[in-house]
Amino acid sequence: MTGWVFGSIPRVFRYTANTQLEHLHARYTGTGHADLTKYDWITHQHRDTLSSIVGHPSLLSYLALADGEAIGRTKFEMTERMLQPCGPPPKKDED
User: Fold this and answer.
1) What stretches of 1-95 show up as alpha helix (H) in DSSP?
2) Deepest in the core among 34, 50, 55, 94, taking most CB within 10 A?
């Protein structure tokens, strides 16, 4: 076990973990990064949920039945809600 110190991670493993993380962020936009705000993160979560509901016909029909609406109407409302699922973005501070 040369090069191993208890409680430390070798540079090779750190480099591999960082490149894997960068690849994950590049491939999946909703995985976030260090500068991601709470609003952006929750917006990604809501959009992912809504697109999953629209993309699975059985789940879409279940929700349409529960709401007492037509499937097309429910799909339209979910798609419209994807534009701003959490309302308008908060004002940014100009520091």
Assistant:
1) 11-27, 38-55, 57-67, 71-81
2) 50
pLDDT in tens, the chain (95 residues): 555 555 566 666 666 777 877 777 777 766 666 678 888 889 989 999 999 999 999 999 999 999 999 999 999 999 999 998 888 888 887 75
The model carries a pTM of 0.65
Cα 43 to the center of its chain, rounded Å: 7
Side chain identity at residue 43, one-letter code: T
Taking a C-beta distance cutoff of 8 angstroms, is the pair 55, 47 a contact?
no
